[in-house]
Please model this.
Amino acid sequence: MTTRPLAKIAGEAKLLLIGIPVLLWTLLPIYHLLLFAISPRDAAFSGNLWPEEPTLRNFQIVLNQDHYFLIHFWEQLGNSLIVAVSTGFLTLLIATFAAFAISRLRVEGGRTVMNLALFTYFIPAAFLAVPMYRTMGIYGLLNSKWALILAMVTVASPYAIWVLKQASDKLPYELDEAAVVDGASPLQLFWMVYLPLMKPSLVAVGTYALLLAWNEYLYAFLLLSRDTEITLPVALGNFLAADDSPWELLMTTGLIYALPPAAIYYAFKRYMVSGLTAGAVKS
Amino acid sequence: MDTLTVSDRDTEAPPKRRGWSQTRIWGTIFLVPYVLVFLFFVVYPVCYGFWLARDPQTYVQLFEDPIFIRSIFNTLFFLLVGVNLKMLVALLLSGFFLHDRIWIRWLSLIFILPWAVPSIPTILSVRFMLNPEWGIVNQLIFKLTAEDGPNWLNDPTLGLTFSVLVHIWKSLPFWTLILLSGRLAISKDMYEAASVDGASSIQQFRFVTWPSMKTLYVTCTLLSMIWTLGDFNSVYLLTGGGPADLTHVLATLGIRYLRLDQVNLSMAAIVSALPLVLPLVYFMMRRLSK
Model:
C-alpha cells in the first residue's frame, strides 16, 4: 500500500520539476529590471543578486526629472497616455459603428469591408511602417501626436471590428425586430439595444487598443522625433544611443512605464481572456 | 481580390430587411469612418509603397545585397525554428497548466507577465544582462570561473538565437493560454473512457488530445508565423541588427534601408516578402471568416 503515496509524491515532484524552471524563465528579465531599479548606481554593476542597500532613490530621480536624460519624463508619460487613450477611444468608436453596420444593419458592402479589414489585420504592422511614415509626411502630420494616434487606430481597428462583429452576430435578431416593430430608428437601436448588450466586448476591445498604443515602439519612433512629443518607449530607446546611459535610471523608467499596462491587464483579465484570446483563434 | 470569397454563411442568416431605406442610410453612415481610415491609412500608403518599389532595377540591387539575403535566412530561422519551438513548448506547457493545484494557478498568473508588460523594458533588461563588461551574466561567469565571458550579442549566431529566445519569452504565455483553452474544451469523458480502456498518458495524448487539438495547433502556428514576421522589437532592441548587420530580419531591414535613405529598397524588400506572406494570410482568412 505504500506505492500509492510514493507515486503521488513522484507526480508532484514531476510537476515541480516543470514549474520551477518555468518560474525562473519567466521572472529572470523582470527580476533583473527590478534589481537595477532598486540598486544604487555603483552597486547595480557589482553582479550581486540582491543589492546590499536597496534604495528608492532611482524612482525619486526619475519622478523629479533629475537627470538630463529625463528632463521631459512627465511630458513623455503624458504623451503616452494621450496617445493610448485617444487610440482606445477612436478605435472603439470607429469599430463599434462598423460592426453595428455590418452585423446588425447588414449594410451592402459590409462583408467586403469586413474581409478587407481582416486582410489588413494579417499584414504585419511592421511592413506598413515605412509607407505609413512617408504617407504621414505627405499629410503633414509627422512629429504630431495625431500621426501616431491615427496610425495606431489603423492598426487596431481591423481586429476590433472583427471581435465586435463576432460578438454581435451572437445577439438574437428578434431583439432588433421587436425594437423596429416598436418604431425604433437604427440610431435608437444602436444606443438603446446594441451598446448595452455589447458592453463586455466593448471593454475588451477598448482595452486592447489602449494597450496596443501604449506599448507601441516602432511607429512611435518613426513618426515622432521631438523630445517633447515622443512617447515614453521612444525615450527609453533613445537612452541606448548614448554610451554613458544611466542604466539604473533607464530600468527604473522602464519599470514605471510597464506598471500601468500590467495593472490594466490583470484588472481586465476576465475580459481579455474570454473576449480576446478565445476570439483570436477559433479552431 | 480572391480573398473575398471566404464566407458564404452570411447569406443564410437573417434576411435583409428590404424597403427600410433608413437602415441603409444609417448603415452607410456608420461604415464611413472606418472606410475613410482604410482609404487614407491603408490603401494610400500601400499604393504609394508599391509605386516606390516600381523600378525592376531596385530588385536587382536588392538581391545583390548580401544583407538582404542574410535577413531572409534569419527570418526563416525565426519562423521555422523559433515559432515551431515556441508552439511545441506551449503545447506541452498547456498540459502542465491543466493540473488543478493552487500553486499552479498562482504560477499561471505570474507566467502571463511577459505578455502583460510592454516589450521594450524587458528586452532592454535582457540586453543589459548580456552586456560583455557590465552585464550580470558575465559578472557571474567571472566570479565563478575567474574568466571573461563571451561577448554574447557580438556574435551573429548567438545574437540571433537570443533574439529568438526574447521573442519566445514574450509570446509563449499567450499561445500557452490559447492551447490551454483548447485542451479545456475537450470532454473529460473521452479521457475517462480512454483510461478505462487502459490507455497510458502518452496514448491519451496521441488518441484523445492531439486529434482534438490538431486544427487549433496548426492555426496557431500559422498565425504566430504571420505575427512573428512583423516582430520588429525582439531584433531591433536587442541586437539592433548587428553585428555588421548580420542579424536583421525583414521587419527591421525596411527600417535600415529607410535610415540609409534608400526608401525604394526598403519597399522592395517588403514587396519581395509578399509571396511568403500572402499564402499565410489567405489561409488564415479562410479559417477565421467562417
Remarks:
- Chain B has one domain: 55-289.
